[in-house]
Amino acid sequence: MSELIPIHPEVQAFLNREQKLLIGGQWVAAASGATFDTLNPATGQPLTRVAAGDQADIDRAVRAARAAFPAWAAIMPAQRERLLHKFADLMEAHKSELAQLEVLDNGKPWGSAYNVEVNVAIGQMRYYAGWCTKLTGETYPVSSPDFHVYSIRQPLGVCGAITPWNYSLVMATQKIGPALAAGNTLILKPAEQTPLTAIRLGELALEAGIPEGVFNVVTGFGETAGAALTAHPDVDKIAFTGSTEVGRRIIGASAGNLKHVSLELGGKSPLIIFDDADIPAAANAALWAIFANSGQNCVAGSRLYVQDRVYDAVQDALASAAPALKIGQGLDTGTQLGPLISQTQLDRVMHYVDAGVRDGAALITGGAKLDGAGYFMQPTIFGNVADDALIAAEEIFGPVLTVFRFNDESEAVARANSSKFGLAAGVWTRDLSRAHRLARTLNAGVVWVNTYDWFDPSVPFGGVGQSGYGRELGRQVMEMYTELKSVWVKL
Fold this sequence. Notes:
Layout: H1 9-16, E1 21-23, E2 26-28, E3 35-40, E4 45-51, H2 55-74, H3 77-93, H4 95-106, H5 110-131, E5 139-140, E6 147-155, E7 158-162, H6 168-181, E8 185-189, H7 196-208, E9 215-217, H8 222-231, E10 237-241, H9 244-253, E11 260-264, E12 270-273, H10 279-291, E13 303-307, H11 308-321, H12 343-358, E14 362-365, E15 380-383, H13 390-393, E16 400-406, H14 409-416, E17 421-422, E18 424-428, H15 432-441, E19 446-449, E20 464-465, E21 468-469, H16 474-480, E22 482-490
Parallel strand pairs: 7-8, 7-10, 8-9, 10-11, 12-13, 12-18, 13-16, 15-16, 18-19
Antiparallel strand pairs: 1-2, 3-4, 5-6, 6-22, 11-21, 14-15, 17-20
């Protein structure tokens, strides 16, 4: 039985005040005085007003971060670890507030926000707190006995993080944690559609005792604040999660001072079901691989390849399950699918649905937006899709699944690898040898076997091809936030 979660008093108080920028430990208005509304996508109505930072505010934040860097880099690693654990403690203490802000600002279901995403964010912060004391170098046995040679890892300096709107809290901590653990200072520019959890994280960071200027939050638009951050000559690294199109622009903007760049970009991920798989489990996994977060997921399993013998059974199972998913506002505990993030995104997804119909694909179920307030649409499944159709080739970022029939393993691999993207892939089979073969041959940064969409802070994540480069999570991301220095000592 579902219930409507009441708004937490602290969340209401937060929404009642105008949101400012966190620069140098102070909450300040944008230099221009400009603000913008952040909307509840379940209603289309404003939640609160947020400062619209731009070039001047990015300049202020970079100066503050640069001034704070020497002391933060020099602090004892164990002290950094204690501060980041305190930050995580406060996130846990305010878990309900963070989850509600995420639900209201993004529209996602309460169960996903409270039971999964806030826990993931807290876990990430704790994991990276532990890395503060574990960044080590090596010694090298060089050819001459007259030298002692070793390496050390040092922070890069001032880092910029630009995060997306689909998992705004998780993506923020995914960058805050390693950046600060390595001894860098950070400017976070959250997506303009979902700035609220980033602002709340800024408040909790100050409460945790993170020194002024170490963590800064500049809300604003991508073409102003985001562009200024990526091009700034005194920013040493940009970490970006978002579209491939914007990723290309960031690469160009970063060239001025050759700043470090890591990019986690778009995807068009294949999920392959062989006829020896556990078909009910595979079909259920395929359902959530595409419809979780209303399809607004970089690793969404949007291309489903099903072997001939079980194609009809899988398609029938999906066609039955998808219309039964409960669509609604996120604070209703029975909701399984929330709205899309904005009218612009809804229109974009509907454009692809119309294109699929025009290209001759069979609309199995869904395909319509819902009447009334908010940006809701039906979960949508297409069959008989041509490999070169628009809906088969481009990232839709909405609840739209394309289903393909295949004959054998070699065909499935070739078609799965035909995409320009390479973020994720899934394989369902009981054949262990086949599972390992496909794990090697599929062009993807992560491959899930007999499961889908699992993450852990200890496991690196990132893409190949036009899905970006560099890695988030794991030990490997610490290398993205540090510089390796070799030291030669004459004995």
